[in-house]
Amino acid sequence: MRPAVFLDRDGTLIREAEYLKDPAGVELLAGTVAGLRALRAAGYALVVTSNQSGVARGYFDEENVRQVNGRLRELLAAQQADVDAVYYCPHHPRGSVPAYTRECDCRKPAPGMILAATKDLDLDPASSWVVGDKDLDVIFGKKLGLKTVLVLTGYGAETRQQGFAPGQEPDVISADLAAAAQAILRFSQPPALPKRWGLARKPLPGDVDDE
User: Fold this and answer.
1) Of 8, 133, 135, 137, which residue is the catalytic one?
2) 4-190, CATH topology level
3) Model-level pTM?
4) Does 207 participate in catalysis according to the annotation?
5) What are the average pLDDT values for consecutive 10-residue runs of the chain, which has 211 residues?
6) Burial (CB count within 10 angstroms: exposed 0-12, middle 13-18, buried 19+), residue 119
7) Catalytic residue from among 10, 133, 137, 176
8) How far is CA 82 from CA 78, 94, 111, in A?
9) Beta partners for 129?
10) Among this protein's residues, is 105 annotated catalytic?
């Protein structure tokens, strides 16, 4: 079982654009590529988990979501920073499209997307993290005991300013995904990697050479 980092999409990996439906609008945030590369080099599976209630609200359909996600992965792959999988929730309890208007177990902060990815990809939640720019991302992780990072991109600065409910504070607050990745590598036990993967954690500033 591999540890994973579960990543919010809008405001964390890409520029926040409310109800994004056009793949031409996908713009990687500063720090995204560096952060993903560092986490992958350390052996973490990278899984995007995104609420897409615009489907339930009738603003766009699932094909639009797939196109935006496809463009995201295209941009990441071009810089050797692709993710392992993308999960999204199209539901909302107050939507306008009947097929998607319901309470569900996949809309963050419900843990359904983590549970699905854990089963599909053979992941280890106990050593995994959630990174996002909203309090619901933090709650999303804490429901299953994962460690959490709030990034100050997207709505992150506003989220920090508003404060957190008792017991719902993130474990780490970071400027962007690159800083979040460095924090995760510092505060986590680096996963032991089979030699066949050919991967190793890069030294971090402040690491001590025991020799």
Assistant:
1) 8
2) Rossmann fold (3.40.50)
3) 0.88
4) no
5) 97 96 97 98 98 97 98 98 98 97 97 97 96 97 96 98 95 98 86 42 36 28
6) exposed
7) 10
8) 8, 33, 23
9) 5, 147
10) no
